[in-house]
Every structure is written in C-alpha cells, then in structure tokens.
Amino acid sequence: MADSLVRGLLLVGILLLLIVTIILKKGRISMKFALVWYIPSLIIVLLALFPNFFEIVAEMFGFQTISNLVAGALFVILFLIIIALTVIIAGQTTKINLLIQEVSMLKKKVNDNEK
C-alpha cells in the first residue's frame, strides 16, 4: 500500500476517533452509539498500520479481492446496526407506552381531585 494512502487512512481514523470522543464527552451521543463509530475508526487505523492483514483475511475467507471483503464486511456491519437500532426502538416504544399510561392515570387523579 502506498505511503500516502497509509498516512491518509491513519489521519482519517484518528480524526474519527477524536471527533467521536469529543461528541461523547459533550453528551450528545451515548456510549452504545459511540461504539458504532469507534469500531470502524479502529478498523481504519488497523488497516493503515497493518495493510497486509486484510489480504490474509480475504484469502482466509475466500474473497478474491480486498474490495469484496470490505463490501461483505460493510454489509454485515449494516445488518448489525439495523438490528441494534431495532432493539433500541422496541425498548423506546415500551417506555413510551408506560409513560402514556402513567400520564393518563395522573390526569385522571387530577380531574377526580378537581371535582
């Protein structure tokens, strides 16, 4: 891999790590969402530091080119992100329903006390 590409990947990976860390410290995202960004950032840094690693992994899994490995890995990562977000949405839906029920009961108590 060319030196300029290695330096570019290293720079992009480190910048992503710094940006996510700053956003996390400001409290704009939670740790579980930060992990979604930390993992690809670390993979980019690893790719820059060990460029032959992905060639070995591609051969091990039977991919003919590294780009096919990357596309397959991205496909799997996107599915995992979709599953994680679906679980979060389901949990939020349950919490919203509980809050609606509690607010309804409180409104009923207030109305009963006013009468």
Topology:
Layout: H1 3-25, H2 31-49, H3 51-61, H4 66-114
- What does the radius of gyration come to? 23 Å
The succession of helices and strands, N to C, reads: HHHH
Total of DSSP H or I helical runs spanning 4+ residues: 4
- The helix content is over 70%
Provide the structure class: mainly alpha
- Number of strand elements: 0
Poorly predicted regions are: none
Give the oligomeric state.
single chain
Assess the beta-strand content as a share of residues.
Answer: under 5%
Largest sheet: none
Mean pLDDT: 88
Separation, N- and C-terminal Cα atoms: 78 Å
Shape: elongated
Can you tag this structure with a few keywords?
115 residues, mainly alpha, elongated
Would you summarize the structure shown here?
It contains four helices and no strands. With 115 residues, the protein is mostly helical. It starts with a helix and ends with a helix.
Walkthrough of the structure:
The chain has 115 residues and is an all-alpha fold. It has helices at residues 3-25, 31-49, 51-61, 66-114. It holds the Pfam family DUF2304. It comes from Thomasclavelia ramosa. This is DUF2304 domain-containing protein.
